[in-house]
Amino acid sequence: MIDVAAGFFLLAGALLALAASIALVRFPDVFSRMHAATKPQTLGLLCILVGLALRLQSVGAITTIVLIIAFQLLTAPVASHMVGRASHRIGLLDESRLSRNDLDD
Length: 105
Hints:
Layout lengths: L1 H25 L3 H27 L2 H31 L16
């Protein structure tokens, strides 16, 4: 039963990572791509790591996986925020695609 759950998480994570990579190529602007790079990619990695933890079931591996998850959850939102701020500052924002701009002066 654990192998089935691990396989499910591994497959779900791989599909989320695939969806994120397709979205990075197909989305038109920086902000849409930034969303695709953080949300499904992070969830895909977490699913893969949970599947790996279920499959390995050793204390050392699970400790390492928990550290990887914590590092990913701490760095992905910060990196996405910095990319968004930098792209807004240099003028990559397409006003016609927004319904509201809270950063407008």
